[in-house]
Amino acid sequence: MARTKKTPEVVAEVETTPDTRIHKSAGVEKPTKLVWEIADSMPGAKRKEVLAALEAKGVAHYTARTQYQKWLVAKRANDAAEA
Fold first, then answer.
1. What pLDDT, on a 0 to 100 scale, did the predictor assign at position 14?
2. How far is CA 62 from its chain centroid?
3. Staple 26 to which of 21, 31, 34, 54, CB 3.0 to 4.6 Å?
4. Distance of alpha carbon 73 from alpha carbon 77, whole angstroms
5. What is the pTM (predicted TM-score) of this model?
């Protein structure tokens, strides 16, 4: 005789409002913008120093790494265009 497994029915309504969709993975509102602002404010600093400052502000490690690299590419392109 085959056993049947009863699974409980789970029904949950989740109300989403614009206020509940704030990016909270890093504990910082708009962490990507913060990365660019801090990187701009630390000219001549080494990558390691910028990432340490970002992590101290609460930006997630991998978010900081990714956004720093994007900032660096944009900065180099801007510097080349100005030269």
1. 52
2. 7
3. 31
4. 6
5. 0.66
**Residues with Cβ within 8 Å of residue 50, at least 6 apart in sequence:** 38, 39, 42, 64, 68
pLDDT tens-digit series, residues 1-60? 566 666 666 555 655 555 544 445 556 788 999 999 999 999 999 999 999 999 999 999
Total residue count of the chain as it appears in this document: 83
| 3 state SS of 34 | helix
Inter-residue contact 64 to 33 (CB < 8 Å): no
Place of tokens 């913060």: 34
Domain ranges of the chain: 26-82
